[in-house]
Amino acid sequence: MAIQQFLVYLSLCAVCVLSKPTEKKDRIHHDPQLSDKIHDDAQSFDYDHDAFLGADEAKTFDQLTPEESKERLGKIVSKIDEDKDGLVTMEELRDWIKFAQKRWIYEDVERQWKGHDLNEDGLISWEEYKNATYGYILDDPDPDDGFNYKQMMMRDERRFKMADNDGDLIATKEEFTAFLHPEEYDYMKDIVVQETMEDIDKNGDGFIDLEEYIGDMYSHDGDADEPEWVKTEREQFVEFRDKKRDGKMDKEETKDWILPSDYDHAEAEARHLVYESDQNKDGKLTKEEIVDKYDLFVGSQATDFGEALVRHDEF
């Protein structure tokens, strides 16, 4: 067994040992919370700082004077103003907040990009991805670790083609992001649903029935009594998941389950920031209007934008 295959095998064994049969697997994709702090501007603007910068970045913003905060905030405003018209719209502010909250996705893409853009031309072809990911498997079509790598590769190829908007089998960084994180893109949601159904639909009838639904998140493992959360999930399936009351979930019902239409917290926060900062009430913010309210956006002695600016430049 090749050393890479052996390490994969060991890691999977460790997961199996550490996993408990009563643990619940969550397949639902939710947008992350903007902050774990209370949104009460009468007490503090900490929630707004987390939302605007991301919680991890906001924690590092403790050493700046008000003058430094204003200067760096002005630089960030220039990044937010995508069309460079000197005005920040609610939509541009919303997009920035979403970027700040999902920075980890772009960091993940950047890490993987370096390992897959083999010819360093700023693009990743399917052949590059296949060779970097499955090259050693292709040399051994019958590995002895029990994994069906050929099936995994075919599934990856299908997703790659879905992410590839122009059909040339060469991914830009945006298309590669859609490939790695399809749940973040509207045009990729069908593939997320399809892959989920293939994972859970054990009898291959194109639907997810109650036992398949429960079996995906819980294994009896010899236990006679189910935990309470499993009983609750059975009730959830009957009362809410199975909208047609036919004992199974089709593609639309599965999509409603794993990709719910969440409240758009980023848009709500963007509207709040515009409302609080828009002095002339034209629905848009100038750099001056934002900097005047720097304490709302970033504060002072609680702000360090250096890393945020550097990371945004990378993308």
Radius of gyration: 24 Å
Q: Report the sheet-strand fraction.
A: under 5%
> How much is the average pLDDT?
83
Structural class: mainly alpha
SSE order: HHHHHHEHHEHHEHHEHHHHH
Distance between the termini: 39 Å
Helix run count? 17
Principal-axes shape call = globular
Protein name: Calumenin
GO molecular function, one term: calcium ion binding
Domain EF-hand: 68-103, 104-139, 151-186, 188-223, 265-300
Keywords: Calcium, Endoplasmic reticulum, Glycoprotein, Golgi apparatus, Membrane, Metal-binding, Repeat, Sarcoplasmic reticulum, Secreted, Signal
Describe, in plain words, how this protein is organized in 3D:
There is one protein chain. The chain is globular, with a radius of gyration of 24 Å. The chain is built from 17 helices and 4 strands. Residues 1-23 and 301-315 have low confidence and may be disordered. The strands form 2 sheets. It has a two-stranded antiparallel ribbon with strand order 1-2. The chain has helices at residues 3-18, 46-53, 55-58, 66-80, 90-101, 103-116, 126-138, 149-163, 173-180, 189-200, 210-217, 228-241, 251-258, 265-277, 287-292, 294-297, 306-314, and strands at 124-125, 170-171, 208-209, 248-249. α5 (90-101) crosses α14 (265-277) and α7 (126-138) runs antiparallel to α8. With 315 residues, the chain is mainly α. Residues 1-19 form the signal peptide.
